[in-house]
Design a protein that fits this description.
MetI-like fold; 71% helix
């Protein structure tokens, strides 16, 4: 009688598997040009926000003789009302706005996954209570609530702002996570995990959620887009400190200095608008491609 011993994969085997998975994913993505362009756009702006500042010096010194210069070799996107280089502000302003978007999406996703899964798995009064809170949250006007919360708390850091945005975004995703978990918890492999008494944490995070990775990733991306719009909105309203660099802060100062009414300042106000728009288009295009790739019905009809 022989006994088969199943060895755990080594670190090298795991890296090889991850590499093959990435190659396969990129091959599927390359068949969807819009999604591929979106992915390239996301990578570009992440590099612009988090890598480029390591190699480009921050230019914060005003120059009264360089106010509202048009694009040139020295200033590819012109200058602002203080004579500061607009491209330099775009480079250094991307880090805060993307960090807030990522953190806010992470907070809302973690809340939705945790409590949506608990509601679906535990059921009973726990499920009813979580759903009741979620339904109340869904009925609240989020934009007005965001303005009120920001006006009262006056977040002094963008991390605090990200937490506030995340706490206002989770409700719709929670219901969707709960519905997905309800449809999966009766599967044979979940029942087997229950019979082995592996615990709620193992069942949710090791058995159920891995099958929902693509679904969660898509909603994470859309949560980022919502967080970006929300933070730019309240920055323009002046409800958060306007120190530092941020594309929303650029718009705040642009409208405050009347840049809309001066032809020479068009690049100053268009640059952050264009950057925000391109990031949003990249995120939405990539999310649409992900849904196409991971949804068998859509892939079969493509």
């Amino acid at each position: 009688m022989s006994t088969a011993i199943l060895a755990r994969p080594t670190a090298g085997q795991r890296l090889l598997g991850l590499w093959l998975a990435c190659v396969g994913f990129l091959r599927l993505l390359s068949q969807r040009p819009v999604g591929l362009v979106g992915f390239i756009g996301i990578v570009f702006f992440l590099l612009l926000a988090f890598v480029a500042p390591l190699f480009v010096p921050f230019q914060n010194d005003p120059s009264l003789v360089d106010i509202y210069l048009t694009p040139s070799q020295a200033h590819p996107l012109g200058t602002d009302f203080q004579g500061k280089d607009v491209l330099n502000q775009i480079v250094f302003g991307g880090r805060d706005i993307l960090t807030v978007a990522i953190l806010a999406a992470l907070v809302s996703t973690v809340i939705a996954i945790t409590f949506g899964s608990i509601a679906a798995i535990v059921g009973g009064r726990v499920d009813s209570t979580i759903l009741a809170i979620t339904d109340v949250t869904l009925t609240l006007p989020k934009l007005i609530l965001l303005i009120a919360v920001a006006a009262i708390l006056r977040p002094t850091s963008f991390v605090f702002l990200a937490v506030i945005l995340g706490l206002l975004q989770w409700s719709s995703l929670l219901r969707q996570i709960r519905a997905q978990v309800l449809s999966l918890k009766e599967r044979d492999y979940v029942e087997a995990a229950r019979s082995l008494d592996l615990g709620l944490f193992h069942i949710v995070f090791r058995e159920i959620l891995p099958t929902m990775r693509s679904y969660i990733a898509i909603h994470f991306i859309f949560a980022m887009t919502e967080a970006m719009y929300a933070q730019v909105f309240i920055v323009i309203l002046g409800l958060v400190p306007v120190s530092g660099s941020n594309w929303g802060i650029m718009l705040y100062f642009a409208q405050g200095q009347g840049a809309l009414f001066f032809r020479d300042s068009i690049w100053y106000i268009l640059s952050p608008i264009l950057a925000i728009t391109l990031v949003q288009l990249s995120l939405v295009s990539f999310a649409s491609a992900l849904e196409d790739i991971f949804n068998p019905r859509l892939r079969g009809s493509a």
